[in-house]
Design a protein that fits this description.
GO terms for molecular function: chitin binding; endochitinase activity; exochitinase activity. Keywords: Carbohydrate metabolism, Chitin degradation, Glycosidase, Hydrolase, Membrane, Polysaccharide degradation, Secreted, Transmembrane, Transmembrane helix. Its main location: secreted. By secondary structure, this protein is an alpha/beta fold. The chain folds into two domains: 31 residues; 405 residues, Glycosidases (TIM Barrel, Alpha-Beta Barrel). The protein is built from 17 helices and 17 strands. Strands 3-4-6-7-8-9-10-16 form an eight-stranded parallel beta barrel, surrounded by five helices. A five-stranded antiparallel β-sheet has the order 12-11-15-14-13, with no helix packed on it. The chain has a three-stranded mixed β-sheet with strand order 1-2-17. Helix 2 packs across helix 4. The longest helix is centred in the first third of the chain and has 31 residues. The protein is globular and about 75 Å long.
């Protein structure tokens, strides 16, 4: 009973302390916060660029981290990350400014959602997307970098800051692309990255079939998607319907949507550049891509050859090959089928999907983007009794690295990442008490905890090196990672994106965003006046008075 009382009072003290801390922060945050740091944020904004021919831009810039990474034009590779709008929330607390943009050519912002009732595209999380104030954590980070960041103009008032700068994650991404901040603390071309809005996702999968049944809903989808893309400052649209059924309707509708989106994007480009003397080939363009399944069963359903005519990239989701739905353990992001024996069913792997797209469907390799996993999938209570040398005293033995933990029975999946059973963020791995191992035949990392019989399979630095070389050998467009919050951002030696881009050597970052262009900004104010999400920031960038 005494122990129970001690535990009670200990818990009471801890909870009281937490409550006092939260109340203090809520009441005094603005007073405790150094406003001069926040002023630095606004003062980093700089005017947009006028379009110049590509050959006038330096096409090879050395990275500042003593690696062999260079920034290059058409010979370079794409390096993308999906950034989810739940990333800023606890426990992830991953903000846009945490990304190393010197290594990123594309950010896929996830997710915008389809309203199945009317077909319109909507914000997925309004607070995170456009309302959350992320400039305070950014300003705090600037304070830590005070030796690298200068104040460029006269200080502004805090009310001006809150008025001029668009809020939310979308707002901060716009700011990062149009400020002096990234070139100051990183490399000159760091802010040359594309922002793409991703529509759909697994949790929104049921809305697509509802939309597909109505011509009016399809029309609403296309028009609202393009309107939101432009108002919120995106360079394009990425479609993620998981997955169209094998029937006469859904694949055809998916193609129709892509064709109409491409047409709408082309028309918008014509409007932006209607009075411009810049040649068409030197104009900036909106991108259309698809988050594609990466195994033949789902790919064969799609009219790939027709879709390929309007798509810029196929983001191949070469992960989730195994997981909690699998009967036995297996790698979830393996590059190859490294099995020594034939299986009744195909062992899913990235290489087979890439070959199918190139050899069977005729898709150009430089349109295919290899998917990389920033997370692992796990299994608990794995039955290892069939592995040679394992028995009753498994907890006392040491792993040699030669053990094969796939095709084993298990019970449960565990997981340390909230949101989905059986998942660990890469930055939570290897799990405590285990040692990271690498299977070169499959090209997958894994860790195994002998005490709990828990297996987690995932990508690591070693698999990034192999996959980077694979991209170069196959002539692919590049790679992307789902999702950015899973990577290690404070230790380059453990970072997946760092390892992958080091192997690639060249990143395709020469062409800047269409939302860094004066013509785009002028057309934006013509369309939205002072009512657009970005109107005030754009007016400031153009040195115009508030409209």
């Amino acid at each position: 009973m005494r122990n129970d009382n001690k535990a009670y009072w200990r818990a009471t003290i801890i909870l009281t302390f937490i409550a006092i801390t939260l109340i203090t922060e809520m009441c005094f945050y603005d007073k405790l916060f150094n406003k001069k740091k926040e002023q630095q944020v606004l003062n980093q904004l700089q005017p947009p660029t006028k379009i110049e021919p590509l050959n006038n831009v330096d096409n090879e810039i050395k990275d500042n981290k003593n690696t062999n990474l260079t920034v290059a034009n058409p010979q370079g590779y794409t390096s993308g990350v999906y950034y989810s709008n739940w990333s800023p929330y606890s426990p992830r607390k991953h903000f846009p400014h945490d990304i190393d943009f010197s290594r990123i050519s594309h950010v896929y912002y996830s997710f915008f959602l389809v309203n199945g009732d009317n077909g319109k595209v909507e914000l997925g999380d309004k607070w995170s997307d456009i309302e959350m104030d992320l400039y305070k954590p950014l300003s705090i980070k600037l304070g830590k970098l005070k030796n690298k960041v200068d104040v460029y103009e006269e200080p502004q008032t805090q009310s001006t800051i809150k008025t001029n700068l668009p809020k939310g994650c979308i707002g901060e991404f716009f700011y990062l692309r149009n400020s002096k901040l990234l070139p100051t603390i990183n490399t000159e071309n760091s802010k040359n990255f594309k922002m793409i809005m991703t529509i759909g996702g697994w949790s929104n999968r049921d809305s697509f079939p509802k939309m597909a049944k109505s011509p009016q809903k399809i029309h609403n989808f296309v028009t609202s998607a393009i309107e939101m893309m432009f108002e919120y400052g995106f360079d394009g649209i990425d479609l993620d319907w998981e997955f169209p059924k094998n029937n006469t309707q859904e694949p055809a509708v998916y193609l129709k949507i892509m064709q109409q989106l491409r047409q709408g994007m082309n028309e918008l480009e014509e409007e932006i550049y209607k009075n411009s003397a810049v040649p068409v080939e030197e104009r900036k363009h909106f991108q259309l891509s698809v988050a594609s399944p990466a195994f033949e069963e789902k790919l064969s359903v799609l009219p790939i050859k027709e879709m390929n005519k309007v798509l810029d990239y196929w983001n191949m989701m070469t992960y989730d090959y195994n997981g909690e739905w699998s009967e036995k353990t297996g790698y979830h992001s393996n590059l190859y089928d490294g099995s020594k024996v034939k299986h009744d069913e195909e062992v899913l792997n990235a290489d087979s999907a890439i070959k199918y797209m190139i050899e069977t469907q005729g898709v150009e390799p430089n349109k295919l983007v290899l998917g990389l996993a920033g997370y692992g999938r796990g299994y608990t209570n794995v039955n290892v009794n069939h592995i040679q040398g394992f028995g009753k005293n498994n907890k006392e033995r040491e792993l040699t690295g030669d053990e094969v933990f796939i095709d084993l029975e298990y019970k449960g999946v565990g997981g340390e990442s909230e949101g989905e059973p059986g998942m660990w963020m890469y930055n939570q791995l290897p799990i405590k008490g285990s040692i990271e191992q690498f299977d070169p035949k499959f090209v997958s990392a894994y860790c195994y905890d002998l005490k709990t019989n828990t297996l987690v399979t995932y990508d690591n630095v070693e698999s990034m090196n192999v996959k980077g070389q694979y991209v170069k050998d196959k002539g692919l467009a590049g790679g992307f990672m789902w999702e950015s919050c899973g990577d290690v951002h404070d230790n380059p030696k453990r970072s997946l994106i760092t390892a992958f881009t080091n192997e690639l050597g060249k990143i395709k970052k020469q062409e800047s965003s269409i939302f860094q262009d004066e013509k785009t900004f002028e057309f934006y104010l013509e369309e939205f006046g002072n009512e657009g999400y970005l109107s005030e920031a754009i007016a400031k960038l153009l040195n115009k008075d508030k409209m």
